[in-house]
Amino acid sequence: MPIQAGTKLMYLADNHGRKINYLRLSVTDRCNMRCVYCMPETGIDKCQHVDILSYEQFLLIAKAAVALGIEKIRVTGGEPLVRRGILDFLAELTKIQGLKQLVLTTNGVLLPEMAQGLKDAGVQRLNISLDSLHPQMFRQLTRTDLLPQVLAGINAAEKVGLPYKINVVVMRGRNDNEILEFANLTRDHDCTVRFIEYMPTLKEKDWRSQVISSHEVLERLHQHYSLHPVERGPLSGPAEEFAIAGARGRIGVIAPLSGHFCQDCNRIRITASGRVRTCLFSDYETDLKPLLKLDDVKVVAHELRRLISEKPACHTLNSQVAGHSPFSMAQIGG
Ligand code: SAM
Ligand code: SF4
Q: Model-level pTM greater than 0.90?
């Protein structure tokens, strides 16, 4: 709903009245995997090292954002754990007064050796991406043989007591036959398994045939389980969540294509090279780098507020139409 003239809000909002409290920082565009839906086999045109923001610059942005009203920060990538010094950076983020939640998205490969460090740095929860439990399909989807490392990473997170969610991008004819197997994990593991609609970010020729709606995923689950809806916290993401009766964990579905959750969108993104993207599927980005040189939290906050106010009302993507220019999620952070 648009804000009426004269309305005074107690929180950071855009011109459509949406509360904006969530910032995603993509700290690198580098990655140790090559997921088929995320980047071409040959990789992406990487940012020059000099163009990637320093941790000091990311901290400046984070401080400005929290001063404005951002409550939750997600560190993502590329693969955030491949960037040197990431643990110290995360520990610095947790010191920002007013930040309520620091979370991180990872492909899990480096978790066996880094889970404890992440816990010690103050990360509150992980999203671990895992699209197949079977080595052959895992190889097909990630173009790597790193499944054992990811599984060991999930165990490591459990062992150090880091809560985690597993993100599964569901693709028809590829891993959709694993939906029940993934859901079953929630019986014995205190985690959330979230099924995400595959998005045609790269605009592959045959993308439409590979999309499975969240509705279909839920229908398949309902055929086997009695699922009951569960309540979500105020800083939760866009997933609808359910649980199998008697299970320790939860199941979620995220529907960026079929769900039209733009009216509840609460986030902005910063790319590894310091560009602000206020809508994932809008081609419009603004380079913050020139302002960062001034090293002034107030100046950055002023610009962020301006950009947030101009956040688009909705993207045009649906299960048939993709109007955006192709991009790799590794460049923007998912
Ligand atoms: N490398 C980390 C990882 O994979 O978790 C973090 C970055 S990755 C770009 C963030 C999330 O975006 C992952 O959960 C990944 O599955 C998701 N993602 C990337 N491309 C996608 C696409 N085309 N459709 C749906 N999800 C996508
Ligand atoms: Fe890397 Fe994550 Fe993209 Fe896969 S989804 S290629 S792990 S950035």
A: yes
